[in-house]
């Protein structure tokens, strides 16, 4: 009697309707708010607002979203609240873009930006925690990498959409149209991502209790993230650096146009490498892979400090900078999920996002001030040093999260 052939073990499926829902919602939301953001400086010029006004608006909005993520993380420890928070966050963020069309002063724009970014911050930890819980552990990196790719593709499409709309429509109509993808993001999330249930009878931890309960390895990870973030300057400074060193050379389209095209290349590289990096993290140590990304961050700062007025050099620089973003945003999310138990992931993702936000604000402010006072070489060299400290901390102070085999 012949024995039945052993059945093949079915690999867990990760690219499901749910994961597609997360990705589609992020793509639509980013396309909408990036289109609105791209057209915002044009609207401010019609109000005779000073150039510093835009920096003030974005700086206040970044601060709001940073602290909103902390509270959003605490709320996300309640699984039953995650989907309502995410849907509400996508909806209000999308609608806030349309409010720009009704504004008659920069203060109205500031209020709309604060409203949108407040709910963006509140929704972010819930969405991240839901995604981490929605896929098998063996495929966490692929799912997060796919999500980051879709998010970055939206960031690429947004400015392109704004460019087309500005050529075809009156200025204020651009914001009404840009609002549509943001609202559709909420619809996609509501229809494709199921609500989460909880079987635990224990009440979720409070805001401070959730922070105190975070594991020590995760706290060490946060220290590495903060140290690296203090040197991880905003990529708009990279665009400014490229524009400066190219100067008034005879370049088709001018130095500013070339710098913007390089910025688009940066986004494209980030989108292209997010999924492969996530795929590798399902088979290798995500901590070691992230250390490679952090090391590339050191290289990015050094290349920016000693940048040459050469198009091939700048193409390489922006490509490396794009790789850093793709690796960093994907693998920090993977490590967060691996270092923290499911019931605390809301708090963990909130604190991680806030830590990155603080690092971003410090990095861009310090680099900008030092650049103005002492020159770009010193400013970006200091950024490289901060990134190097973060890389070293990640290597020596953060334990390895066990890779999942698939």
Characterise this structure:
- With 406 residues, the chain is mainly alpha-helical.
- The protein contains 14 helices and no strands.
- α3 (79-99) packs antiparallel against α4 and α8 (216-229) runs parallel beside α13 (345-374).
- The longest helix has 30 residues, at 17-46.
- Mean pLDDT is 86; it is low at 5-10.
What is shown here, in short?
This protein is an all-alpha fold and 406 residues long. The chain contains 14 helices and no strands.
Q: Which short descriptors sum up this protein?
A:
406 residues, mainly alpha, Growth Hormone, Chain: A, 14 helices, 78% helix
The shape, in one word, is globular
Using the CA coordinates, give the radius of gyration: 22 Å
Helix count equals 14
Largest sheet: none
Name given to the CATH architecture of the largest domain: Up-down Bundle
The name of the CATH topology of the largest domain is: Growth Hormone, Chain: A
What class would the helix/strand composition place it in?
A: mainly alpha
Ends: how far apart? 34 Å
Overall mean confidence score, pLDDT: 86
Please trace the helix and strand order, writing H or E for each element.
Answer: HHHHHHHHHHHHHH
Question: Layout of helices and strands, plus pairs?
Answer:
Blueprint: H1 17-46, H2 51-75, H3 79-99, H4 106-134, H5 140-168, H6 171-192, H7 207-213, H8 216-229, H9 235-246, H10 254-281, H11 286-305, H12 311-339, H13 345-374, H14 376-397
